[in-house]
Amino acid sequence: MPSLRRTWNRFKSYVGRPRMVVQQHAVVLGEHEQCQHPLFVLGPMRSGTSLVRRMLNSHPEIACPPESFFISQYASMAQDPDVLAGYEGLGFDRPAAVADLARKAGELHEAFRIAQGKPVWADKTPPYTEGVDAIDALFAQRPRYLLVWRHPWDAAHSLAERGWQLDGEDDLLGAALLYVRRNFEAMRAFAESAADRCASVRYSALCDNPEGEFAPALAKLGLAWHADMLAFGEKPHNFGAEDPIVRGHKTIKRSSGAWKGWSEADKARAQQIIDPADWPDTD
């Protein structure tokens, strides 16, 4: 027969046992004050976005890591009926589901900016340019956007020169020209629909007069130019999926006009695909 002390202890354990709580809504832990207006850099590959990324990451208020690639996956999930049905089974309606996906999509950028003691996080991932509408919807039209324009033939030349096969096409130059055109068209369409949250910089002007070109764009986005942006070569930057050549650049080095070495036939074909006069940077 158990002793009275043992019986009393068992009684107390029973009364004080943890109760199972059936939650109708999952609880997200570790919330913190989030950046309300993240910044996305838009532009095709080889348009100067890596330079812009390093300049932004050198700003005392902006944390811009290397290309992420995963945010577009969250944007796709936010539009996937099966994913939304899964959230519904956990008690999340569509707005709550999308908000949770946005939180997850941005949490590593949040951690990165907090580690650097900066209030704003930015992302520079060229493939996001063609899917910017979905990303903007994911973050509830809160982000701001910096569009980077380069002479389209220079961007295409750089892509083809590196032998990058786009869209599975063997015609490297033709595919590069079409790729740049698609991105520029996506940028223009988005800028027209969200004009108050978009600003632009031209690669050639940025190289020739960094502050004169960058400062007005930042001002439109609610940010201020800082001299540290010119010292990007002296600042620490994470390395990841980005142009490895830019890592060795300590100062701005303009690269323009390589397309002038094309044959007349290639120039004529390029003119048919994308006319430089239709876009901001024609130098």
Weakly predicted, low-confidence segments: 16-29
CATH level 1 name:
Alpha Beta
Spatial strand order of the main sheet: 2-3-1-4-5
Could you please say which CATH topology applies here?
Answer: Rossmann fold
Going by CATH, the architecture would be: 3-Layer(aba) Sandwich
- What is the string of SSEs from the N terminus onward? HEHEHHHEHEHHEHHH
The structural class is alpha/beta
Task: Report the strand count.
Answer: 5
Mean pLDDT: 90
User: How many discrete structural domains?
Assistant: 1
- Percentage of residues in helical conformation: 40-55%
Enumerate how many helices there are, as a single number: 11
CATH superfamily annotation: P-loop containing nucleotide triphosphate hydrolases
Strand content: 5-15%
Coarse morphology: globular
Backbone CA Rg:
25 Å
* Distance between the amino and carboxyl termini: 96 Å
Describe the structure.
By secondary structure, this protein is α/β, with parallel strands linked by helices. It is 44% helix and 8% strand. It is globular and about 100 Å long. About 5% of the residues have low confidence.
List keywords for this structure.
Rossmann fold; 5 strands; alpha/beta; 283 residues; 44% helix; 11 helices; five-stranded parallel β-sheet; single chain
